[in-house]
UniProtKB/TrEMBL annotation, chain A:
Signal peptide positions on this chain: 1-25
InterPro entries registered for this protein in UniProt: Peripla_BP_I, SBP_2_dom
Keyword presence, Kinase: no
Species this chain originates from: Igneacidithiobacillus copahuensis
Protein name as annotated: Substrate-binding domain-containing protein
Pfam family, one: Peripla_BP_4
SUPFAM superfamilies xrefs: Periplasmic binding protein-like I
GO molecular function: carbohydrate binding
Length: 302, 318
């Protein structure tokens, strides 16, 4: 960091020299980042966006919507009033945030959707991972690993959340080709570590012959691993999850306790959102896809 | 006087048998229909989940006895875990970190009590603000990321065993005993009932109403803190969202257990039974693999049934 400083200073100096002719100041953008909540996953989006913003010299204002659409709509209003140059929105709700996005459109403030989108209004870009594909990949791995036969527990996310519905649909679309894989339980762990722990403990009791677990996020998978370890059943279980690439998750994959993490990349999403917004303001164009990343435990690579 | 006698905890406990009967019926029903319901592992599973809920229900019991409510208990639980984890990361030995975190929780509760009773902001508003403030402080402390806890001694509080029984069950049982003795045998315990029954009369009888009500909130903070320690220890993690939303099951538990929202009526026994009923239902729903869409529906129906049963009891005792 320190070594870079003189170079940045020189660049900044050159920049201001170049701009002297046009008598305008160097473009100092301010972006608003509206997150639906502040879970570990969204915190990772935030840190990815923050580091990219720092790199580009963009000032980033971060708001936490607390999973409440009214709160988030107000935050959009406030940021419009502050005349930010760009809004990165991770909507609390696909429908409820449409008016807020339209207000931003009317104020000519470009909008980028991160991780989730609103069903209306105009956005210049949308960065997210394909939830349906993630669910399908995790369950395809389990189906192969079980050789098409066994007892599976589907550890679901928050009931009714789009991420839950899409991931489950992806998994189900694969499982329908495997009549001998029995989904013995479909229960929600509410996307939380404690939820994964408590539900897994009960499912292990109800199903002494459980073979595999499909977890719809990393936090629940970590909880499930703890429950399985405490019950002495982890060795007989294959766990696949849709992860976020956090340190805790990666560690469990490395140790082989979780066989597969279909890892979303929230930090990349945040960074790409800021980068795309910056490029759009400077050049008027945008394009970057977010790939999914397959993170296999040792010996699990097909 | 006869009115006060009817509110005596021992008589109250007898009146509360209706809840016990409901609990027994629930257990018998699940024993027949739910596979593996009757097993040591499952009994422990229910009790492990009930332990933090019982502690949060005790918070609500004590403040409801003085006609208050504490919406911040879940937030204070999460806050306590985050403080303990941070201090352990700073190199404090775990017992000291835990004690200081519990002290912070008690201070948080005391602060709420003082604002309510001396600055005269209503219980509901103060603790609603507390819910927001302590949830936010937890996010700030953890920076939104789960904080790992490596102190084995601390984690044993949530995942260890003592004489074959999980540690958190011992902890919850101990606090239940302490509160039962407090409410049943000490003057200040009796005074809580008196304040809830008739605040003005209690004041005229020489009870220091504001001080005792503040103390009820201090206890609520402490008990919420202990629940927070258990929640953190059982995952070896201070989760930035730990405890979030847990005030609602806690309130549901005491309501099911026959505690009055208007003060002066309720028992430790009822709060514990209410928490056990909720944990047993959640356990049964998973064992039976009922769709999670139905969970809250079942909880809502149980709360309504319990309250209606309570009304029947009250009418018959009049």
């Amino acid at each position: 960091m320190k070594a870079k400083k003189p170079a940045t200073l020189i660049l900044a100096a050159l920049g201001s020299l170049a701009l002297l002719g046009s008598t305008t100041a160097a473009p100092q953008y301010t972006f608003g980042l509206l997150l639906s909540a502040m879970t570990p996953y969204f915190a990772t989006i935030k840190s990815g966006a923050e580091s990219e913003a720092k790199k580009l010299g963009v000032q980033l204002l971060v708001e936490n919507g607390n999973n409440d659409s009214a709160t988030q709509s107000n935050q959009v209003d406030t940021l419009i009033a502050r005349k930010v140059n760009l809004l990165l929105i991770n909507p609390t709700d696909a429908k409820a945030l449409i008016p807020a996005v339209e207000k931003a459109n009317a104020a000519h403030i470009p909008v980028v959707f991160i991780d989730r989108k609103a069903d209306g209004g105009h956005a210049i870009a949308y960065f997210a991972s394909d939830n349906t594909q993630a669910g399908a990949q995790a369950c395809q791995f389990l189906a192969n690993h079980l050789h098409g036969k066994g007892n599976l527990f589907m550890l679901l996310g928050i009931s009714g959340a789009s991420a839950t519905n899409e991931r489950s649909a992806g998994c189900d679309s694969v499982l329908q080709h495997y009549p001998n894989i029995h989904v013995v339980a479909r229960q929600s762990g509410h996307f939380s570590r404690r939820g994964g722990l408590t539900v897994m403990r009960d499912v292990l009791i109800a199903h002494p012959n459980l073979d595999a677990v499909y977890a719809e996020n990393g936090q629940m998978a970590i909880g499930a691993v703890r429950a399985a370890e405490a019950a002495g059943r982890l060795k007989n279980l294959t766990i696949a999850m849709i992860g976020s690439g956090s340190a805790g998750e990666t560690q469990l994959v490395k140790e082989g306790k979780i066989a597969l993490s279909v890892a979303q990349q929230p930090a990349v999403m945040g960074a790409l959102g800021v980068e795309a917004g910056y490029n759009y303001l400077n050049t008027g164009t945008v394009f970057v896809p977010v790939p999914l990343h397959m993170d296999y435990a040792p010996g699990q690579r097909p | 006087m006869p009115n006060e006698l009817r509110h005596h905890p021992i008589l109250q406990a007898i009146v509360d048998q209706g809840v016990l009967i409901a609990f027994v019926l629930l257990v018998v029903f699940l024993a027949f229909v739910a596979p593996h319901f009757v097993s040591t592992a499952n009994a422990f599973s229910i009790l492990i989940d009930a332990a933090p809920l019982v502690l949060l229900a005790l918070c609500e019991l004590v403040v409801m006895l003085v006609a208050g409510i504490d919406l911040a208990v879940g937030a204070i639980a999460g806050f306590t875990g985050a403080i303990a984890a941070t201090m352990m990361l700073q190199g404090f030995p775990w017992p000291i970190a835990t004690l200081l975190a519990l002290l912070a929780a008690m201070l948080a509760g005391t602060l709420q009590g003082v604002i309510i009773n001396y600055l005269r902001v209503t219980d509901f508003i103060t603790t609603l603000a507390g819910l927001s403030i302590f949830s936010s402080l937890t996010l700030i402390i953890t920076d939104g990321e789960p904080m790992n806890i490596n102190a084995n001694g601390f984690n044993a509080l949530g995942e260890g065993h003592l004489l074959g029984v999980p540690t958190q069950i011992w902890i919850a049982a101990f606090i239940v005993l302490v509160v039962a003795l407090w409410l049943g045998l000490t003057a200040s315990g009796m005074h809580l009932y008196a304040i809830g029954g008739n605040r003005v009369a209690a004041y005229r009888a020489g009870i220091r109403v504001r001080r005792l009500r503040s103390f009820a909130y201090a206890f609520s903070g402490l008990s919420a803190g202990i629940a927070g320690v258990i929640l953190a220890a059982q995952l070896a993690t201070a989760d930035p969202n730990a405890g979030r939303g847990q005030e609602l099951p806690a309130i549901a538990a005491v309501v099911i257990g026959g505690v009055s929202l208007f003060g002066g009526r309720g028992s430790v026994w009822g709060a514990v039974l209410g928490a056990l009923i909720l944990s047993t239902i959640l356990d049964g729903l998973v064992l039976l693999n009922i769709s999670p869409f139905f969970t809250e529906l079942v909880e809502g129906v149980v709360i309504l049934l319990a309250v209606m049963m309570g009304h029947l009891r009250k009418r018959s005792s009049n």
